[in-house]
Fold this protein.
Amino acid sequence: MLLNCKQTSQLVSQALDRRLSLRERIAVRIHLCICKYCKRFRQQLLAMRNGLRRMTETIEQDTEIRMPSESKARIAKVLDTELK
């Protein structure tokens, strides 16, 4: 099964939320081997996700953010839940 770029980008995005089937994973890998644009898109998604994870790890201790610690904790909890 050969995927086009739209299908690949959708599956790459879905892979952040669910485990792709073996067939989907193979199809995505094949497409990523031949398409530098989809490969770059995947790298950008992963970089954004990693950045958000790092942000949630430090938001509670950040003294530059001027809001009650309860609010910072609530934001960190929501972000952590959404990224899992």
